[in-house]
Amino acid sequence: VDADACDKVTLLIAWIIGVNFTAYQEFKRLAKEYQPQYAATELPSWQTMVLGLISGAMGPFSNAPIDTIKT
User: How far is it, in rounded angstroms, from Cα 70 to Cα 65?
Assistant: First the structure.
């Protein structure tokens, strides 16, 4: 296996994970800001699930243009 290819895959995975976690934390902060009753506690599980779903999709959405250009 080519070392350069492994480096590119590692960077791509780090990019996707970084996008996902950054998006999740920002969405969670905004949700708590707009719902002051949850400022000191956790968000309801359904809101956490929706935030995770949206932020989980951010990685592939942000990677798609790079993937398209690469091929």
Answer: 9
Tokens of 54: 């949206």
Dist CA 31 CA 8 (whole Å): 34
Per DSSP, the three-state class of 41 is: coil
| Residue 41 one-letter amino acid | T
- Residue 41 φ then ψ, to 5°: -125, -175
Report pLDDT digits (tens) over 16-47.
677 788 888 999 999 999 999 998 999 999 99
